[in-house]
Write a structure and sequence with these properties.
The chain has 16 helices and 13 strands. The chain has helices at residues 20-27, 32-38, 43-48, 52-62, 69-77, 81-88, 102-106, 108-111, 114-118, 121-125, 162-165, 172-175, 204-210, 212-220, 316-326, 335-382; strands at residues 91-92, 132-140, 143-151, 169-171, 191-193, 221-229, 234-237, 241-242, 245-248, 255-265, 274-287, 296-307, 331-332. Helix 4 (52-62) crosses helix 6 (81-88). The longest helix has 48 residues, at 335-382. The protein is globular, with a radius of gyration of 27 Å.
Length: 383
């Protein structure tokens, strides 16, 4: 009869008795939030978690665009990967929207001077378009489908101050290719197909009825748009990570627009105090199921623009100041708080539009009644 062998496990007397290399090997396998939590567990983990290499691995896993050598040098110059992660992993929230008053905004066109509306020129001189770097990563169902880096703001140095007075907008796919030649992973097109997880779509007519492709695209896409200011050495993620909404079949039956974004502070820059940073992605259906070809989508647009409460585009001058302020505003790791901030802005914006329509309706009725009264008075005196 065989006797069972008793397994003996040598007890660990203390954490200090374990090898530092073992600790490092454990920590390098963790994601960012878990690594940050482990750093609070004990002194050994806290000490090792300061290693830049650990945070570089975390950043490269979360944002593949940070694998580029020029981006690594940029991150090192602004404080390192640990600081970069701490700045860019939490998302921007803005609860000052609730303090917004319609009457204050409704009167700004008469009360604000041009100098007040367009900003302080001395302050603007301290902000240069070349200071900003956009680091963009797009994922679909966890797989990275696009990584681009844009140095500076395109066309910002055009003649006659065109950029500063016209609506601010960045079209990433139009300009980023100029700086991505060294990547080796950019062929100029981003394609999604059934192999990436898209559902089979027999026809666009069927898609209009059930919206299956739209739901899969909206729920599966994730966007990170990090803006870095090299001069002040600050960075922030302006995206909401998951989609906030979008439009089906706009402007054609084959186009889908997915919207991300955040609410940015504009205190002392614009009278509305807060603005919306709108990040849009547009996909076009280039193939549906049939004739041996599977459902295929092509990414045709990735853009950023800023809009005020009335939906008006913010000009380049004010956008630079707002972007600079956004890099130091409040952030949160709680995604529900981020969504609450965006939904609160949408709610207030809708209330403002309704109030404006009511005021315009009252004014129209007043004009009509005044016209009728003038007409009756005129004929009264004539007759």
């Amino acid at each position: 009869m065989l006797r069972p062998m008793a397994a003996s496990i040598a007890p660990v007397e203390s954490m200090a008795s374990l090898s530092t290399d073992l600790f490092y090997d454990i920590l390098r396998r963790l994601d960012g939030p878990t690594l940050a939590s482990a750093a609070c567990a004990c002194a050994a983990f806290c000490s090792i978690s300061r290693e830049e290499r650990l945070w570089e691995n975390v950043c490269s896993s979360m944002w593949p665009s940070t694998n580029r050598e020029d981006v690594k040098n940029l991150i090192t110059s602004i404080g390192g990967f640990r600081k970069f992660y701490a700045d860019c992993f939490p998302l921007i929230i803005n609860k000052e929207v609730s303090e917004y008053q319609w009457n204050e905004y409704n009167e700004y066109t008469e009360e604000w001077t041009d100098a007040e509306y367009y900003g302080d020129m001395d302050e603007l001189e301290s902000v240069s378009p070349s200071d900003f770097v956009s680091i963009v990563d797009i994922r679909y169902k966890g797989k990275t489908i696009c990584s681009k880096v844009l140095w500076g703001i395109p066309n910002a140095n055009s003649f006659n101050g065109w950029f500063y007075n016209c609506p601010f907008r960045i079209d990433l796919l139009t300009y980023a290719a100029r700086d991505d030649d060294d990547d080796g992973d950019d062929d100029g097109e981003v394609i999604l197909s059934v192999s990436d997880g898209l559902p089979l779509i027999a026809s666009l007519e069927r898609e209009r009825k059930d919206g299956k492709l739209w739901r899969e695209l909206r729920d599966g896409l994730q966007l990170s748009w990090i803006v870095v200011n090299r001069k002040i050495k600050q960075a922030a993620n302006l995206a909401s990570w998951s989609a906030l909404g979008g439009q089906r079949h706009w402007p054609t039956d084959r186009d889908f627009v997915i919207r991300f974004g955040s609410i940015l502070p504009a205190k002392d820059i614009l009278p509305c105090q807060v603005v919306e940073c709108i990040l849009s992605m547009k996909f076009r259906v280039i193939h549906t199921e049939g004739n041996g070809v599977q459902t295929t989508l092509k990414l045709t647009e990735v853009s950023m623009q800023l809009e005020d409460m009335e939906g008006s585009h913010v000009n380049g001058r004010n956008s630079l100041l707002i972007l600079k302020e956004a890099l130091s505003c409040r952030r949160s790791k709680n995604y529900s708080e981020v969504l609450e901030s965006c939904h609160l802005y949408t709610k207030v914006q809708s209330e403002l539009k309704e109030e404006k329509m009511r005021n315009e309706s009252r004014l129209d009725r007043l004009c009509i009644l005044s016209g009728i009264a003038a007409f009756i008075t005129f004929w009264y005196y004539v007759l």
